[in-house]
């Protein structure tokens, strides 16, 4: 029976990936029906806290986009990078990392990619180096952003096990930065020089190299104010999460939880953007950030509940098989996080599925924090949205997939960055926890 249940779980994931997008969540729901109604397994706990946090962060980020705040940030970043074109291979990844940390989603870099490609090309730098480093840095930043879906899940789970916000961020944020910078360095050494690239020379001869026309325009007060509101909300979350004594207390003596802090701050910021930035509520719903974010909720609800249903039903056997191994070799948790993320194609879905399992298997807290940067396996296949966008915006053709699919420009920077980030985490985490 267990073998059939495993087939159902893996089959749901496989067919969901084939469907793409929200399909993996829908297939997770079908698999859940088979496990519960068909095989009689008790249903696992859906990740309600994670879903609520993601929903409110998506609403706030969508309001920021609808108010023009994201475009304003992209223009600022583009201006900064154009002033320092010689160091574009380092400045661009740092910029995408910082912007993702602030926004909680790597999709904020979409509008930056054509600007990055153009600056690199104009500077004689192979665009694939800059684009690969920037894309991977934005993906890795998810493991360090206090308002990303993955980190929100991590904070909620760890807080329930007595680990504070400061402890989590003290390990995960610097590990994320180290991983991103190592990835950027490796990317800057990839491939031949642009003038020696046969694909580029062929496209140049055929007149296929086009110049990206950057949108011009003055920044409006409402764009700037929307960014200020979003930053204030983020800072408010960090301060209240870091210092529990500042949170409201209740009759039972327990302060407000991190989940509620994030929900309140993000919804308040979104509301203030609508009021003071004259943002239409309908434009928030129509924003691309809203559509992609809300579809991810279905993915998380379906696939995570499917996974927890199977795991909870067989926790005794899983502990017997994997408990001693992970307790003796906790670094293996990083491999579990990495390959699960590569399979599910979602950092937000991987975290609430694997981290509770690691806690149940008695993996040390410090090892969980040290391994968390590995929840970045989305670059393994070159079909992640930001990876596809980078290849599309590079008119030189230098950012391309090789003959064997996996030999693409995001692979080595991603692997190198994660190895460095995990190594750094395992050095610093025992000193912090």
UniProtKB/TrEMBL annotation:
Keywords attached to this entry: Cell inner membrane, Cell membrane, Membrane, Transmembrane, Transmembrane helix, Transport
Intracellular or extracellular location(s): Cell inner membrane
Membrane topology recorded in Swiss-Prot or TrEMBL: Multi-pass membrane protein
Molecular function in Gene Ontology: C4-dicarboxylate transmembrane transporter activity
Catalysed reaction equations from the record: (S)-malate(in) + succinate(out) = (S)-malate(out) + succinate(in); fumarate(in) + L-aspartate(out) = fumarate(out) + L-aspartate(in); fumarate(in) + succinate(out) = fumarate(out) + succinate(in); L-aspartate(in) + succinate(out) = L-aspartate(out) + succinate(in)
Cross-referenced Pfam families: DcuA_DcuB (PF03605)
InterPro entries, per the entry: Anaer_Dcu_memb_transpt (IPR004668)
A GO CC term attached to the entry: plasma membrane
Coiled coil: none
Transmembrane segments annotated in the record for this chain: 6-35, 47-67, 87-110, 163-187, 225-244, 256-276, 297-316, 328-345, 357-381, 410-432
Protein's recorded name: C4-dicarboxylate transporter
């Amino acid at each position: 029976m267990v073998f059939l249940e495993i087939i159902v779980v893996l089959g749901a994931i496989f067919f969901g990936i084939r469907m793409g997008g929200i399909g993996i969540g829908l297939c997770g729901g079908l698999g859940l029906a088979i496990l519960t109604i068909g095989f009689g397994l008790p249903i696992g706990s859906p990740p309600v806290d994670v879903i609520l946090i993601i929903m409110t962060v998506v609403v706030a980020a969508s309001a920021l986009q609808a108010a023009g705040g994201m475009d304003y940030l992209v223009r600022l970043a583009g201006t900064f990078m154009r002033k320092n074109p010689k160091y574009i291979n380092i400045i661009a990844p740092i910029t995408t990392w910082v912007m993702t940390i602030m926004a909680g989603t790597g999709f904020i870099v979409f509008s930056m990619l054509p600007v990055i490609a153009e600056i690199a090309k104009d500077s004689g730098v192979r665009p694939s180096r800059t684009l690969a480093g920037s894309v991977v840095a934005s993906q890795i930043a998810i493991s360090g952003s206090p308002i990303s879906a993955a980190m929100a899940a991590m904070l909620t789970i760890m807080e329930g096990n007595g680990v504070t916000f400061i402890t989590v961020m003290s390990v995960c944020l610097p590990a994320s930065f180290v991983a991103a910078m190592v990835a950027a360095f490796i990317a800057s050494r990839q491939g031949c020089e642009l003038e020696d690239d046969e694909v580029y020379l062929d496209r140049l001869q055929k007149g296929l190299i086009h110049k990206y026309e950057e949108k011009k325009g003055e920044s409006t007060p409402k764009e700037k104010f929307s960014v200020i509101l979003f930053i204030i909300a983020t800072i408010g979350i960090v301060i209240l999460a870091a210092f529990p004594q500042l949170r409201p207390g209740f009759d039972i003596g327990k302060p407000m939880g991190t989940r509620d802090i994030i929900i309140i701050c993000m919804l308040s910021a979104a509301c203030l953007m609508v009021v003071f930035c004259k943002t239409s509520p309908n434009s928030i719903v129509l924003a691309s950030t809203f559509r992609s974010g809300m579809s991810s909720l279905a993915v998380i609800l379906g696939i995570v509940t499917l996974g927890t249903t199977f795991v909870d039903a067989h926790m005794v056997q899983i502990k017997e098989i994997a408990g001693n191994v992970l307790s003796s070799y906790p670094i293996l948790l990083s491999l579990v996080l990495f390959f699960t993320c590569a399979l599910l194609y979602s950092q937000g879905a991987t975290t609430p599925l694997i981290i509770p399992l690691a806690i149940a298997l008695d993996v040390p807290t410090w090892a969980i924090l040290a391994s968390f940067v590995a929840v970045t396996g989305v670059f393994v296949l070159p079909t992640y949205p930001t990876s596809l966008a980078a290849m599309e915006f590079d008119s030189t053709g230098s950012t391309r997939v090789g003959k064997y699919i996996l030999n693409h420009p995001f692979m080595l920077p991603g692997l190198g960055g994660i190895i460095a980030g995990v190594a750094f985490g395992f050095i610093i985490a025992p000193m912090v926890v």
